[in-house]
Amino acid sequence: MVEIMPSRTVRARRLAPLIVVAVAATALILVPAPGSLSVVGTKWLSSFGLSIPRADLVFEVTLVLLALAAASVIGWVWWKHPSQRPRAVVASIGVVLAYVTSEALKALFAQARPCSRWVTAAECPPAGDWSLPSNHATLAFGAVAVVAVLLARSALTWAMVGVAVLVAVGRVVEGVHYVHDVAIGALLGMALPLLLTLVFDASRRRRNGSPRRRDVGSDRGTNTALTGSSE
Question: What's the CA gap between 215 and 5, in Å, rounded?
Answer without folding.
Answer: 6
